[in-house]
Amino acid sequence: MSYELVGITVLWIFLYGYLIVASIDFGAGFFAFYARMTKKDHVINQLIARYLSPVWEVTNVFFVFFFVGIVGFFPETAYYYGTAMLVPASFAIILLAIRGSFYAFENYGTKQSTVYTFLYGASGLLIPASLSIALTVSEGGFIKEENGSVSLKYMELFTSPLSWSIVALSIVSILFISATFLAFYAARAKDLPALKLVRTFAMFWSTPTIIAALTTFIVLSQHNERHYENMLDLWWMFGLSVGFFLIAVWLLYRQKHYGLAFISVMMQFLFAFFGYGIGHYPYLLDPYISIHEGATHASMGIALVAAFIGGLLLLIPSLILLMKLFLFDAEYVKGRK
Amino acid sequence: MELDTVLMSRLLTAMTLGFHIIFATLGVGIPLMISIAEFIGIKKNDPHYKLLARRWTRGFIITVAVGVVTGTAIGLQLSLVWPNFMQVAGNVISLPLFMEVFAFFFEAIFLGIYLYTWDRFNNQYIHWFFSLPIIIGGGFSAVFITTVNAFMNTPQGFEIQNGTFSAVNPLAAMLNPATPTKVFHVLTSAYVTCAAILAAITAVMILKRKMTDYHKKALRLTMTLTFLFALLTALAGDFSAKFLADHQAEKLAAAEWHFETEQNADLILFGWLNEDNEPTGEIRLPGFLSFLAHGDFNAEVTGLEAFPEDEQPPLWVHYMFDLMVTIGFLLLGIALLYLLLAKMKKWNEHNKGMLYLIALSGPLAMLAIEFGWIYAEEGRQPWIIRGYMTVEEAATSSPYVTHMFFLFLALYIVLGTLCVITLRKLFRNNPAEEELEKHYPSFKKGDNE
């Protein structure tokens, strides 16, 4: 396997990791706001805070890791995406900034305020929307290059069914992933009222998730045939994805094995996300940047892979410790520590 | 229009970095102070020091949050605002950027653990132990990111073929000539600044309310640390000057208004430039620039005229350099004075004048960080990669960069204001004395708010 393939695989795994941990975070923000509005906040807000407080910073790092990594392995991406995405990415930064800092201001600082909760909830839905524009752009057709300058075709982006279906998919997926996780966490905490509420959320958001996934698939077939054909060849991955989805919904419906339900959701998105990513090969930005031509020098690529292995040896035990202390420590989850 | 986008790109980056540096500096230095306080607390079994660690940590979380989000902003902005730079230099500097993220990751994980495990372990040293990865992670983020900046000043580890980098050696690029002095200076100045700021907060508390044993101990600890790190910072500054003389003479020459290459060069303190670009109203220390640059009063120091006019940094960096150095020595002086007063039984180190001086030293230290960075960055103009790529060639061509500047300006105003408000609320109605009674004889309830 060439280093650039190792590179993109690693980065894709990290992006998947971000997808899961950020979904939990973003969705939780929205549910917290929704619960506040419907006067049910006493039921789930403590649960959410107990999980999120120790991990929100780690979530953020997953994202930083991905974009630093992609520019490192594929410097060409900086030129094209950097110039074209100045505006949408800047908005994403601002939303992330509002979210991260307001979270700290509210939780560690002052008494809770509805304005903060609103911004916290709203940014949770807007961030994925603005970040998912990068996915749309990667399909090609939204960038023009003139006189050595790259720009985004905003009109076409905003009128494209592809961009809207990707945005819709990202938002409903977030709510589904998050609700399933919170159901698992509530079941662990033996917090039955909270469990009842978040289980309803999970059941509710499962349908739009699968509908949005299908719509995106169809729209993509009209926009980028090559990608679509590649994805058809990987039909078994998407089949497995749907299979895990059905298992998750079944478990949620039967009200048991919430841990297994969440793992099924993780597997559902793992197969869909990798099927999508592998289908994209060999382009990072269709047709400007391919994985092989856009890659950095071999010496740097190998150094990055080495740094990556070294880093993981450090991170994995630390992450396991973090999860042991806060996710799998039943006493902590129940709020006794 | 083209020039405008370059100027706006520079202003946007300067603003983001100028704002981020405040929180980044706190992020590097405060964990060390917290860890030292907690260690002394456990060692001496002194609740005062333990409470000190707790209260510092509580304020620290707020600044970490702002540091994280502004750090994310600058990380993305590197590619958004300087796409041409990243396309070329990404080949050479992505290793340290990547490693910086790992260090940050490591720090983030253990920060979460440290914050939520007060009183969770029977052996108090276990909790203290979790502060070490935070110090290490924070320190190493600073080290790695500083190597990137050092590379931009003294690039090496590649060859140029047809305008692109080839034969890349990532380690050689990281370990470039500017790295050792920069890393040393960045770390020591972050530690001295944090010690000075914590001392300043204590001094203000004593001036506003009253003095307790808690405050006395806090002041003694932070002032001792200020003194130690101020000494090390001065040493690092001296190394940096010698490095500049050898490797980046135009930066030092611009800072010192040293135009002609000469032996026994004078050090110029303060003053301003008249219409003929001659220093006026300055204090001259004969031969001291030669001494600063090469450790010898008669050594030759390269003047600015040795460089082409369009490769010379702006002359106003002199003010930044002077302000940084002056504040550095002022910090050392204030800390020394305090320690001397404390040593002498007859004198009172807590007199009002002394406390006011200490209260002043904190904000001054942070200003010195800003001045120092402005000097370092403006001192390598017009280059973004010295000798290879100018700032103009590297900036984005997107016309929206002006809009983004104002958007981020608004963001930083909001973040800065809320940060101050939150920190004030956190401590104003919660004096240390009350908390001490609440936490410590009973010593049961945790601190996980």
From TrEMBL, chain A:
Claim: Transmembrane is one of the keywords in the record: yes
Q: Which family does it belong to?
A: Belongs to the cytochrome ubiquinol oxidase subunit 2 family.
Q: Which keywords annotate this record?
A: Cell membrane, Membrane, Transmembrane, Transmembrane helix
How does the record say this protein sits in the membrane?
Multi-pass membrane protein
Name used for this protein in its record: Cytochrome d ubiquinol oxidase subunit II
Q: Tell me which GO cellular component terms the UniProt record holds.
A: plasma membrane
Keyword hit for Transmembrane helix = yes
Q: Where are the transmembrane segments?
A: 12-34, 55-74, 80-105, 117-142, 162-185, 197-222, 234-253, 260-278, 298-327
Top-level taxon of origin = Bacteria
Query: Where is this protein found?
Result: Cell membrane
Automatic annotation (TrEMBL), chain B:
Q: Which InterPro entries match?
A: Cyt-d_ubiquinol_oxidase_su_1
Electron transport: present as a keyword of the record? yes
* Lineage: superkingdom: Bacteria
The terms under GO molecular function for this entry are: electron transfer activity; heme binding; metal ion binding; oxidoreductase activity, acting on diphenols and related substances as donors, oxygen as acceptor
- Decide whether keyword Ubl conjugation is in the record: no
Compartment(s): Cell membrane
For this UniProt record, give its keywords in alphabetical order, as a comma-separated list.
Cell membrane, Electron transport, Heme, Iron, Membrane, Metal-binding, Transmembrane, Transmembrane helix, Transport
- GO CC field: cytochrome complex; plasma membrane
Q: Which GO terms describe its biological process?
A: aerobic electron transport chain
Matches recorded under Pfam families: Cyt_bd_oxida_I
> Where would you say this protein principally sits, based on its record?
membrane
Topology relative to the membrane: Multi-pass membrane protein
Membrane-spanning parts: 20-40, 60-81, 93-116, 128-152, 183-206, 218-237, 316-341, 353-376, 400-423
Task: Tell me which family the UniProt entry assigns to this protein.
Answer: Belongs to the cytochrome ubiquinol oxidase subunit 1 family.
| PANTHER family recorded | CYTOCHROME BD MENAQUINOL OXIDASE SUBUNIT I-RELATED, CYTOCHROME D UBIQUINOL OXIDASE
Q: What is this protein called?
A: Cytochrome ubiquinol oxidase subunit I
Organism of derivation: Lentibacillus cibarius
